[in-house]
Structures are given as C-alpha cells and as structure tokens.
Amino acid sequence: MIREPLIFEISEPGKRAYALPALDVPGPADALAGLPVRADIPGFPQVSEVEIVRHFTRLSQQNYCVDLGIYPLGSCTMKYNPKINEKVAALPGFTASHPLAPADTVQGDLEVLRLVEDALCEITGMDACTLQPAAGAQGELTGMMLIRACLEERGDPRKYVLVPDSAHGTNPSSAHLCGYIVKEIKSNEGGTIDLDDLARQMTGQVAALMVTNPNTLGVFEYDIVKIAEIVHAKGGFLYMDGANMNALTGKCRPGDMGADALHINLHKTFSTPHGGGGPGSGPVAVKRVLEPYLPVPRVIGKAGALALDYARTRSIGRVKSFYGNFGVILKALAYIWSLGPDGLKEIAEIAVLNANYIRRSLDKDFYLKYTTPTLHECVFSDKFQKEYGVSNLDIAKRLIDYGVHPPTMSFPLIVHGALMIEPTETESKRDLDQFIEIMTTIAREAKTDPELLRAAPHATVVRRLDETGAARHPILKWENGKT
Ligand SMILES: *Cc1c(COP(=O)(O)O)cnc(C)c1O
What we know:
Blueprint: H1 28-31, H2 49-61, H3 83-89, H4 92-95, H5 107-124, E1 128-130, H6 136-153, E2 160-164, H7 170-177, E3 181-185, H8 195-201, E4 206-212, H9 224-233, E5 237-241, H10 254-257, E6 261-263, E7 284-286, E8 298-300, E9 307-309, H11 326-362, E10 367-368, E11 378-381, H12 383-386, H13 392-401, E12 408-409, E13 418-421, H14 429-448, H15 450-454, H16 467-472
Parallel strand pairs: 2-3, 2-4, 4-5, 5-6
Antiparallel strand pairs: 1-7, 6-7, 8-9, 10-11, 11-13, 12-13
Helix pairs in contact: 3-11, 5-11, 6-7, 11-14
The structure holds pyridoxal-5'-phosphate.
C-alpha cells in the first residue's frame, strides 16, 4: 500500500477545486468590499476537485468500522447499528425543527424526549430521568452533582466517594471533579467488591459508592443487594455506572438492585455509532429522592400539551445546551421500539452467549486471571505469550494484519497485560469463529515466530507508531511545508 500524503503535501499554488465563468452580477466579494476580510488563508491547501475527492476516499478506505467487521473493544459495546435508526433520525420533521421553537410547535420532539425518558426508566427500574448529558462521563458528573445537591440540602455534605479498583477511569475523575475525595475499594480473588473492605470504608462521611455492574471484568456483582444495604445503612447513595447495560437489558434492573442513580450510554447499549468522537448521550436515571435536583428544563405535562419547565428551584441547573443530543436520543427510541421488550431481552442473552463462546474457545491459548463466570465481556491477558517475549500490544498489532480491530488493551488495571474482549450480540457465529481462529493463530505464532509479532503490523500503510515519541514530542502544526 502507498502512504497517502497529507493534503498539504499535494497542495500546489494556484490550483482550484472548481472553475466557473466570472460573475456578471454583484457577488459576495462586492458585498464585503471595504470590510476587513482577508484575501487568503496562509498555508491553506490548494488542490483540484479530483485530488480532494481521491484523497479523502483513499483515507476512508484505510479506516476500520463496525460496518466492516467485528470490533471487539471491551467496555465500549461496538455493536452494529441498524440503519433504520439513521432513517428515523433523518426525517425532515425532526431535522428541520429548531431547539428554540415554541413548545406548542414542537410537540412531537418533546414527545420523543418523554418517550425515551419513560423507556429508560422502565428498562432501568428507576423513577425519573434526564437526557441532557452528552456522554457517559458527563452523566457520571451529573449523577454525582445530584447526590451532592441532595446531601447538602440535608446539611450533610460529606467528603468521600468510594470506587472499586476495577472501575472505569471516568468514575474517580467524575467524583473528584464534583469535589469529593476518592477512596479505592479492593476487589477479591473473584474480581468482585470485597465486602469487608467496603464495610470498613463505608462511614457516615461517604457520599456514595460508584459501582459498575457487571464490572469491567464482565463479572456480575452477585452481592449487589448486600452492597446497597451497606451503603444505605450509612446514609450514602449507590451510584451505578450503567455503561454495561448491554448485559442486563430486559433481564434485570439496576433500580431493583438498590441503585439510586445511574447513567446509561445511549451510544453503546442503544445503538448510536461511536468511537469517532461523538456525539454521544449519557442519560441519568434516578430514584424519586433525587428527582427534585435533575437538570432543567424538564419535560412536563401530557402528550399533546407538553411543556418545558425551567422553574425548579432545587435543580442543579443546566448541564448541556438545550435538551441533550437530540439525534442520538431519537436513534435510541427507534432502536428500542424496533426491538420491543423481547428484542431488548435478546440483546443481553446473545451478548452474554457470544462473550462466553469466545471465552471458552480461547481459554487454552490465553490466560484468564479471573475464572469467575462473566457476562458480556471477558478479560484475558498476555501472561502465556510473555514467556516468548510477546506482549498484549504485539498481539493487538498482529490482529490488524488479519484485518480485525484489536480489543481494549491494558484495562482494567487489575489485570496486567489485559486483552478485554466484548463481541456484542450483533456478531454471527461465523464471524466469532473467524475471530477465534485468528486469535489462536496468533497464539501459535507467539511460540513459533515471536519476532513476527513484535514487528507487527506488516500489512498496513503505517507501521508500528512510536507512541512515546508522539506523546513526548507531538507535532501539532504544519506551516509552509515544514513541521
Ligand atoms: C464507556 C464507559 C464510560 C464513559 O462513557 P463515555 O461516553 O465514553 O464518556 C464510563 N464507564 C464505563 C464502564 C464505560 O464503559
């Protein structure tokens, strides 16, 4: 493959993407005459139309996406996103409506918000929901702000938030950003929360425990009801990270397990394409006790006479412009309705089946630190391959040679050299078998030809990148052909 140059490198002075006859009527230049408008943009690439089209088409064909094959990034739920969601979100009635339009002219939009709130409450077993947060991490922050507002109103602000050592990095960050001191809870040999450690650390100064269930090892916290009791007994809140709802939809509900607040990643579980930087959506669902603090505006009233309520004195205020990422919310509604209750249940069943099929098929070739049964994902490590000097990075790079996107690496932190695989429910047995065959081939190569793996990838335009160099000496500017 030939390396595609930067668009700046193919630029040649004087080239234009189009050629049209000169205007014989006044044009934009005349309208702007005399105003401080610059004549050109320094360093702006000058290329022809066909050069632009080919440049970006070639780049697009070097890309990998869920429409091309399995994308087994653990904790990311890279499922295939049905195209009907896009069709619905592109309906002109939705795309042409304006967020500042008077409520009585956008009853349909408000009803979409209401329907998604209701559906998420039903799926999670919670009482109320805000759709405003733009991502999971912002949902976490919003949830922690709700808890803080409630505790402050009680005159009991508290200092600490407990987070298990298996948690996603966003959990401690969100708690910290909300002004809490984060304390870590240890996992036991089974990979779940150590109840003794929790009981020891859960004092009257702890605002909340943030727990992911199933956790980032894919292990269900079997003691979740007991965990909730320990937290509630000391007047704390149970915050649940619902990014892993894919393992639970239609089967069980966080609200029934004792969660007081949780966020859901619509761009994971409820099928909006993600990975390229958004937009996402991280709604937060809460129990009645936290409802008064939800962000404004709230959709109120009955279908046909819905309104937006801003006059909520106990609300934490806005967390996002307007009403959240409406297009993503709409896609979630299309997805939920097209599947129905039985389909939602099937998501969890097949996601868990697929992950366990991979786990059982690869557990001879790759080391499993935790042998506790897992749900929708499984976490191997490079321990067997380390004997031959091959690391999880080498395995990930070799997967690229075989045309497969690598799994999540080196996370969760409690598994050294982790390879975290989440196939999701949308992979067929044929695709899973192909992935398994590639992984076993790589395990064989690690023994017979470790050098090959250490130098991978071999089949790509760009070979192994110097990631440390890129971080230490980033090149952020391109000027007149020079870096
Ligand atoms: C993805 C994820 C998050 C963060 O969600 P973003 O939308 O990326 O901010 C938080 N927790 C867990 C367990 C996740 O998998």
